[in-house]
Amino acid sequence: MSAAAIQGFSLESLAPLSGSLVLLLGAKIWVVTRAGTPILCTPLCGVQIALLFWLVATTFLSSAPAASAIAIFSAIVLPVAFLASSLDNAQKSLVSLPTMLATAVFLLVGHMLFGYFIQNDPAASSTFVQRNSLAAFASLASFVLLNAAQGELRSRTHRALLLVAVFLGWFTIFFSTSRGAIGALLTGLFVLALMVPSEQRVRLLKQSLVLVAAAFFMANFLLEQRVSASIISLAPSQITEGVHEGLPNERLAIAFQELGLRFQAGDDSAFYESKRAAVSERWLIWRAAVETAKAAPWHGFGPGTFRFIYPAFADSNDTSAGNYAHNDYLQIFIETGWLGLVLYVVLVCLVLGQSLQAIRSKKHGLESACLGAGILAFLAHAFFSYSFFVPANALLFALLLSRFDALTAPKAYRFDLGAHFRPRILAVVLVALVAIPIVSLSLNVGMSRYYERGVAALATGDLEAAQNDLLTAKTLQNSDLVEIAFGLLYAGAARVTKEPSVKAVLIDRARDALNRAEKMNPYNAAIALGRLEVEIVDPALSFDERLERSQRVYEAGIYLNPRYLPLRTRAAQWLIDKNVNQARAIVEEGTKHPIADGPGLLDYLSLLAELRKLTNDQRGASALEAALRSVKSWR
Fold first, then answer.
1. Fewest C-beta atoms under 10 Å: which of 75, 269, 621, 634?
2. Of 14-18, 203-207, 464-468, the least confident
3. Which pLDDT band holds residue 273 (cuts at 50, 70, 90)?
4. C-alpha to C-alpha distance for 594 and 601, rounded to whole angstroms
5. Quick one: DSSP state of residue 317?
6. DSSP labels for 1-51?
7. Could you give the residue ranges of the DSSP H alpha helices within 117-178?
């Protein structure tokens, strides 16, 4: 059980490969141009350079270097893509972007609808984290496509297809039932009305209003009146009824409700019973995130650390997965500190300033108006979502921001790299900037594969196979999870070894591995699980010493993450024949928090039923056993 509890290594870090590919494109453009290609230097460009250096610096300052070393590649997508697209030749290549975006919108929306209606998944969000994130992508893309559809050089069929893509983008926003995304869309339309040239304003606004109305009514029709009821009256959206009835997550939620427990729905609001519940949930997250921010050092906890830090501050009524603050600016402050937040605020102010300048001067055309509308809509939506932390969204935002900057920056000059640096040196630097993240993430993939194999072998008791796979994983790229797995491996070996000297060596190795894991990520509650295993098998400890140390380790781990069920389960299993009431109290305490479906859930619920029996709570045990049988049959 202990080994299974640390499974689930995340491969989300692969997404930033897209940012590396953008930089590779920029490198190719520069290298194939004999004289080099200049960078468009503007205030926004300076902000991106400062942001890039600060993000790298916060990785070295991070309290959890293992988490930040992986997350940094997601964090730098924005500045890297912006700088790559700021190359003069790259700016020219962005003209063909609308056709690619239209294709992407058709595919993504089609995939979302397929998942929603064919696969009966209410959280269907195509390839994004959730529909809020897909809505943010659609908001950015749709304004670019709206501009492209006005081009006189395009054929009538091409313009029609682009307008259909705009309709699908805005349909996705309404279909998401996210008031944050819908409010951001209305913000973008308002900005567009202000920025668009007067000779094109009436035609474009009529076109936009028709498309918005059609998108709203189509989404409303497909959701069977749920959108209007949720947005206007905050009435229950009934999103978990009808065509989605019988989904495993819903069945778990229903079973938990019958038992007086709460189901941890995750980051998608599709499982919330009403939009009112989603709003109150977000307030709970923000309130806890503010407390998290108060505990952050001046330089932040480091990129990618929010999901490890947040559980210690989460409200007991918060049923989210706790991976995001649902406010980009708040999470940016928590992870990158005051300077990171200031750089993003400066970015927002520069965009607003350049938009206002464009409105006053009336010299800028339709393209800058549409880009400004999409960018400001995205920045507004960031107050209610985590769009900057979805690499696909950050990448598109960077490309459009670079183009907007080139069109509207009041002062821009071209810095010719070839005139100041040798072409070969620059080529090596550019290739290295691309190669480093690609190589690192490729090693991460290999490490994750062998890590999962090692943990699976450890769960089955095959210690030799587990050791071989974990050694390979460590050679490819070490991490806190790999070291925790080694700690559990050595503790397991010590449990079955009868030779005292060998047992002592294995216990020392286990402690060393867990100490290394703590240096890499001191906020991982699984470290406490490993230490608990070590204290239980250490023969050098008396019963009282073992009890005292185990209690201390348990309390430290539960403080980091009160919802970490495997630690509660293992502590109660050890105490069950020593103090059954204390064992039950440990497990029952976990029911005060939302419970997620993951490794160790069935073990936890089975143990809770057993402890209720042992303490003569037959009614509670019977109800739990009935629910367990249902859950096992659903899986």
1. 634
2. 14-18
3. very low
4. 12
5. T
6. -TTGGG-----GGGTTHHHHHHHHHHHHHHHHSTT---EEE-HHHHHHHHH
7. 131-148, 156-175
Can you tell me the distance from the alpha carbon of 145 to that of 170, in angstroms, rounded to the nearest whole number? 11
Residue 491 and residue 535: Cα distance in Å, rounded? 9
Contact 39, 45 (CB under 8 A): yes
The tokens of 86 are what?
């700021």
CA distance 366 to 197: 6
Pairwise CA distance, residues 25 & 19, whole Å: 10
Give the span between the Cα atoms of 236 and 274, in whole angstroms: 4
Query: At 414, which helix (H) or strand (E)?
Result: strand 413-415
Q: How many CB atoms lie within 10 A of CB 317?
A: 12
What does the block give as tokens for 441?
Answer: 């993430």
Residue 32 CA, distance from chain mean position: 36
Quickly count: other Cβ atoms within 10 Å of residue 8's Cβ: 11
Furthest-apart CA atoms within the chain: distance in Å: 89
Position with higher pLDDT, 134 vs 154: 134
C-alpha separations of 283 from 256, 317, 572 in Å: 23, 11, 34
**C-alpha–C-alpha distance, residues 467 and 490, integer Å:** 9
pLDDT digits (tens, 9 = 90+) for 532-550: 999 999 988 888 899 999 9
What pLDDT is recorded for position 358? 83
**Rg (alpha carbons) of the chain, rounded to whole number:** 27
Residue with tokens 């997965």: 321
Map residue 413 onto helix, strand or coil. Answer: strand
Residue written as token pair 């598109």: 396
Q: Dihedrals φ, ψ of 530, to 5°? A: -65, -40
Q: SS3 for 153?
A: coil
Distances (CA, A) of 629 to 50, 194, 526, 615: 56, 60, 28, 21
Q: Quickly list DSSP for 285-307.
A: HHHHHHHHHHTS-TT-S-TT-HH
| Phi, psi at 183, each rounded to 5° | -65, -40
Cα–Cα distance for residue pair 159/161, rounded to 1 Å: 5
Cα 550 from Cα 582, distance rounded (Å): 13
Burial (CB < 10 A; 0-12, 13-18, 19+), residue 496, is: exposed
pLDDT digits (tens, 9 = 90+) for 494-525: 998 888 899 999 999 999 999 999 999 999 99
pLDDT of residue 12: 40
**What's the whole-number mean pLDDT along residues 397-414?**
84
- In angstroms, the Cα distances linking 245 to 117, 124, 314, 594, 595 are 12, 14, 30, 22, 21
Kindly state the tokens that stand for 217: 């009514």
C-alpha to C-alpha distance for 468 and 234, rounded to whole angstroms: 55
What pLDDT is recorded for position 197?
Answer: 83
209-223 confidence digits (pLDDT tens): 999 999 999 988 887
**Which pair of structure tokens corresponds to residue 410?**
């009041």
What is the C-alpha separation between 2 and 4, in angstroms, rounded?
Answer: 6
**What are the helix (H) ranges across 362-409?**
366-381, 391-408
Query: What's the rounded Cα separation, in Å, for the pair 495 and 360?
Result: 75
Span 152-183, pLDDT tens digits: 666 788 889 999 999 999 999 998 888 889 99
